[in-house]
Task: inverse folding
DNA sequence: GGGATATCCGGCACTGAGTGCCGAATAGGC
DNA sequence: GCCTATTCGGCACTCAGTGCCGGATATCCC
């Protein structure tokens, strides 16, 4: 991702960028929803943003990457939130609280979030492109778990915690997309509670009477 | 996957296939390890198997799919094993036992398995192609969990169980690839035990004293 | 034996993603 | 006005993936 350096620094040297990653993302999202992902070429997206095809690939490595822009940015917020979590909070509680906190969206941002996730969870080419983006997200969780467990981030348990956390969140995302009835964070909290409980007692589907802070008995 | 129908039926009607998915897979695996994934074209693979480029795409939809052939086949064995598991075994125990059982490989198959997983876990283009193949695997677990929980397979908990199960297994796979010290099933059992325990008490990394069948206390 | 039929293969042309290269355009610094 | 830094646009190229069609090779049936 060697995108142009448009860091709000008004006195840069060279030619000013004629677009932005955000602008390309909006154009792509609109075209993808209007006429489908496969029937939209990179040429179309670039033209809609007023730049050339070649310039699109200076902002994003692939056609699919344009839809992962916001998701990739979330990784930074995830790491910041992990750094701010108090040490007394237990590992799985901390993960749940951080993930839920990071996924609070302003009401005006929700429609775009839904549109993006709708595409990601339905278009095969977009599902297929998820891997590298998920990896960075998982690693943020794995690094936190590793620091708590006193183990290296690439060992079994930190790795497993990072990946299962994302897996549970993806189930919550999909459920939110499919039903559209309540807040995203509700599903995230449910899924991460179930994960921390080892999926015990999910037989009823009644989450409200699940024990929040289960301790040694 | 509209591959030729070479179902061991010796008296088919038309022209016999001049290669097989398995043969193409072996050629691809050899070339990928020898000269790298990106530096191997589909033309190269087809030539190594003695067929044309066009024919390769009759056996596999994409260049990456050739390495997922065995993995896709495992899904069938997974479903069969789930059908055979006794009803008295608890949900998460059943999942762990089935997954571990399906992943017992003969010693002579291990080197090829390692080579394939080595590629999958290192080459970005292959990681990126994992999505659809993982989905089918996850769905097999989700369907089983749904039948046990009395819920639909596309609801939150079955979905979460299917995805977190694969996530834990992938952590085990990666650990096995990285260390190469013990059997794959050892790591799988560890990771799925940890998942069923909600990742409690993983601080020590000592798995042997974890309680196997933890029940209500 | 010989046609009818079924299946697979090879080749060609085409679209579109992604890349390397280079010169042009537009800014600030001196 | 010249130098430098940065972005942009265009061109040419490789390669993945697809649609199409004729040819090759098998079995079936008469």
Result:
């Amino acid at each position: 991702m060697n995108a142009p350096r448009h860091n709000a620094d008004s006195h840069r040297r060279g030619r000013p960028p004629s677009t932005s990653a955000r602008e390309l993302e909006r154009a792509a999202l609109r075209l993808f929803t209007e006429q489908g992902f496969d029937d939209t070429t990179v040429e179309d997206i670039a033209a809609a943003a007023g730049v050339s095809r070649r310039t699109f690939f200076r902002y994003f490595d692939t056609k699919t990457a344009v839809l992962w822009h916001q998701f990739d940015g979330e990784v930074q917020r995830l790491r910041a939130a992990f750094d701010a979590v108090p040490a007394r909070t237990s590992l799985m509680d901390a993960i749940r609280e951080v993930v839920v906190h990071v996924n609070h969206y302003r009401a005006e941002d929700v429609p775009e979030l839904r549109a993006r996730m709708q595409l990601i969870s339905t278009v095969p080419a977009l599902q297929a492109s998820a891997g590298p983006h998920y990896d960075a997200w998982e690693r943020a969780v794995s690094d936190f778990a590793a620091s708590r467990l006193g183990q290296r981030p690439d060992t079994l348990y930190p790795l497993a915690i990072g990946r299962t956390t994302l897996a549970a969140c993806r189930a919550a995302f999909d459920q939110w997309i499919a039903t559209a009835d309540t807040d995203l964070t509700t599903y995230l909290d449910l899924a991460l509670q179930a994960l921390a409980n080892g999926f015990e007692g999910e037989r009823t589907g009644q989450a409200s009477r699940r024990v929040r802070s289960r301790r040694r008995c």
Q: What stands out?
A: The first helix of chain A runs from residue 21 to 35. Confidence is low (pLDDT under 50) at residues 204-217 of chain A. Chain A touches chain B through 46 residues (CB under 8 Å).
